[in-house]
Amino acid sequence: MSSKIILNNQFPTTESEVESIIKNFASIDDYIAKGTRNSIKKVTLKCGKTATIKSFKIPNIINKVVYRFFRKSKAERSFEYANRLVDLDFKTPFPIAYIENKTAFTFLDSYYLCELVEADLTYRELVEIPDYPNKNEILKQFTQFTYKLHEAGIEFLDHSPGNTLIKKINENEYEFYLVDLNRMNFHDNMDFDLRMKNFSRLTPQKGMVEIMAKEYANLINQPAQKVIDTMWDKTEEFQEKFHEKQRRKKKLKALIGKK
């Protein structure tokens, strides 16, 4: 097995420190998120800064070959896209390093290390808490943030409730940080349809969609009802596909359980 460690030379850490973190990853018990596929843990670096380390599980047998020879790993894409966002003056937890473990013929696991951002909330809280303080203003500023992404040609494919960290910096001012970056597209221009589709995963609540759509309509100088209708159509389309997928999974589990 061989290990590949790529560092961001703008951050005060060393290859040996990162290598030690990966070697001892299993014994780190300070979880930020614990999943069946990926886990995120918190570590304190020698420089005094706090970082998060995300582990990507060993892929299936086909992707072991794909990631070994034909496609960049999730860790590498996360690192690359984070650096690109920083260069374009968008906020994301500062990228520190990515690590890949491979053999001569297959890809094993990978890790992405970035600086910890202490956020006040994620977009998910806006969905789940009806009377979240200053909710409408946060949604408007989030929409302005998304508009700037679109104007820069950035299509964040995982633009979903848990993947935007929100930090209150003044009484009525918020910053937005993108996380979980391994699926992004970069365009010269994003057309109206693609922009509307990029909102579809965020919320099933029509009231929230209307607030975002009205703000976006002002930003692109389009009729509010046109933007509301299109954004809601894209949201309903996503929700239908999502729930159909959940139904298929439920049926499959039931069939497996009967055997």
Features:
single chain, 259 residues, alpha+beta, Phosphorylase Kinase, domain 1, Transferase(Phosphotransferase), domain 1, 11 strands, 43% helix, globular
Describe this structure in words.
- The chain is of the alpha+beta class and 259 residues long.
- It is built from 8 helices and 11 strands.
- The longest helix has 35 residues, at 224-258.
Strand segment tally: 11
Which percent bin holds the helix content?
A: 40-55%
Label the CATH architecture of the largest domain: Orthogonal Bundle
Strand order of the largest sheet: 1-5-6-4-3-2
Give the overall pLDDT as a whole number: 94
The proportion of strand residues reads 15-25%
Short description:
This is Lipopolysaccharide kinase (Kdo/WaaP) family protein. The protein is an alpha+beta fold and 259 residues long. The protein has 8 helices and 11 strands.
Secondary-structure blueprint:
Blueprint: E1 2-7, H1 15-23, E2 31-34, E3 38-44, E4 50-56, H2 61-70, H3 74-87, E5 95-102, E6 107-115, E7 121-122, H4 123-128, H5 135-151, E8 154-156, E9 164-170, E10 173-178, E11 184-186, H6 192-197, H7 206-220, H8 224-258
